Amino acid sequence: MMLKNGFSLVSGLLLLVSVTGCASMVEMKTIEQFAQAMEKEDIRKLKHHTTMKFSKVAFRDKSSLDDLKVLNIPTGEATIVEIKDVSENHKKVVVEVGKNKKKLLYELKKVTKTGEWVVDDIYINQKSKNLNVMKSVTEQMDLLVTIREFVDAWENGNRDDILASTDGEFKETLEQLHPAFLAKLSQRIAGESSNTKRKRPDAQMDKDIAIIRISRRSGQMIITMKLNDGKWKATDVAVESREDGNHVKSAKKEAQMLLAVSNFLDAYNQDDKVALKKFSADKFYQGSLNFGDLKVAPLPESQMAAADYELRVEDKLANFITQKDGKMVNLSLLKIESDEMDIPDQYLVEEVTLFQDQGNQQVTLTSLFSSRAITLLFNEALTKRDVKILGFSSTPDLNRRVWEKVNPNLVAQLPVDEIAQPGFEILDINFNGSVTKVHARQGNLPLTYILRDHLGQLLVDDIELDLQGRPSSVKATLELLVQVQNYAYDMHENNIRNLQRHSTRDFNELVWRQVDRVPQIGFSIPELLMSPLTTMELNENQGYARIKLGDDQQGATVMIKRQHDEYVVDDIMVHSDKVASRYVSTKKELRLAMAADTGLLRNNQAVQATYTISNKTPSEERSTISIPEVEPAGFEVPQDEP
């Protein structure tokens, strides 16, 4: 708001006033007595020659006389030019002072008990921005003394004095502020006074509002004051510092920020989630604090945080930086502006960041609590074989490679027993950018959950564990085991189409493209394929895998190849103690069954059961072996299930 009627408070002394002309001796005597008392700096006589109102305002403490000296009251020879009797006990006397004939207006009043005339006020004619106004000395003195009292209160840091110097929202916020925070804020605002004990404050006034600038050693203090019930009170204060980072645009707003921090820390340390919801941004609370175990990440108490902190303010955002056990903690604040005139703006904590490893590693509470929550949720879903929740808590890659391929009829038989046993415990969490590693123990088995950020949400991407004879990646292991179990189910259900999709070109040409149903052989392949995993050899670079299931007496080894960016079955070697070699090729056994029962074949075509090395040309060999030709274009490339 543009303020008018500006005035400057400058150092100087009232001179002795000499009265000339034919003015009344009463008025001359009254003004002369006041001027002489001013010259001698005699507070007792000044109080005697002024009204009670003037004394209470201008001389309310020992330092008042020093404050009065800084008023720019004209000096020089004075002449009474006009006297106006307002009433029997009230006079207005106009005096011209000095060579420039600066006009002063004295208001004199008669003391009822003694009949003596005394000074009630003095008005100084001042010009500012084309305005010609008379300013009251009592009004200026009241403001000047109030300014000094305000500065003294904030320099001394006395809580009661600080609260007494403020009003409105400013006072209400300071009253709620933790004493340690208020003490720290007062130091930040007061700074160090300048060398000169009485510097000239620069003030602008407009009826009941004043803006005052005071020089400090480090810069300037700007106080906004309001006149309420005849008393000036500060409604805000700012600091313009010569040092970068030490500016305070608004002490009221900083106090509101500190109050938000203090309330948040109190609620957090008391594990009061009802209060936390009130002092936190909704997204932060719902996505972190609501389900987080607050004891996992202790934050400093309010009093400890107030002892050493830094507040960085940028527009609607602010960062409160403090320490906990020597480690930096940052509380990010968000300003929520109100649409209602009578509802003040609000500051809420929108995130907390913890700095570890000498500041080289940082983690937000959202990441910390989310990582714990999503890990626990994922582990519980594994135990319950809840594919829906597993999909919800997994990255798109883990979903695509594993959970989306699980046959609904095989959910209960998901091969996850080792990583879904009782006694799951999170030991430690490490954060590195978008990747979070959750170190845990599943019974006696140590494992590590790998979480990745996906669109702002942490999701499980893999589990790493160290077991001899198999990949460390659970994702890679399950991708193949789910494929094998689905293969077993398709064989059991005679689903030739799916078997074609998940078999190599060679397996398809020799078997699946030639039959309408699975040939019966002397081994229950589906049952063997559902045997527990023994070992898995995976070479991703060369695109093959060898999966051993069961044991050497009853089990199988599945030969997997990568074809068109997907792993498919090339053969299944049956382990059996009933045959001399102990290993039987399923592909070969199926060919034998097809040769023995031509009714299995499409169009009842004959099939050669075995292969022999021959000196015949390929054309002659094809004429002897009745195997339908399969053109490359006719081979169905394995695809994702719809």
Q: Which ranges are low-confidence, i.e. pLDDT below 50, for 5 or more consecutive residues?
A: 1-23, 608-642
Query: What value does the average pLDDT take?
Result: 84
The tally of beta strands, per DSSP, is 24
Distance between the termini: 68 Å
Region (Disordered): 617-642
Provide a descriptive summary of the structure in words.
This protein is α+β, with helices and mostly antiparallel strands and 642 residues long. Among the domains are: 7-134, Roll (Nuclear Transport Factor 2, Chain: A); 367-463, Nuclear Transport Factor 2, Chain: A (Roll), CATH 3.10.450.50; 476-634. 32% of the residues lie in helices and 30% in strands. It contains 21 helices and 24 strands. The strands form five sheets. The chain has a five-stranded antiparallel sheet. A five-stranded antiparallel sheet has the order 2-3-4-5-6. Strands 11-12-13-14-15 form a five-stranded antiparallel sheet. Helix 5 crosses helix 8. The longest helix has 20 residues, at 137-156. The protein starts with 6 loop residues before the first strand and ends in an 18-residue tail after the last helix. The model is unreliable at 1-23 and 608-642 (pLDDT under 50). Residues 617-642 are annotated as: Disordered.
